[in-house]
Amino acid sequence: MLIDLPIGNYFRKFLDEVTATDAAADDQVVLDAKFVSEVLSDKSMLQIQHHLNKIWLQEFYTFSRTQLGESSSRIMCDLLKFESDLQTI
Question: What is the structure's pLDDT at 74?
Answer without folding.
Answer: 92
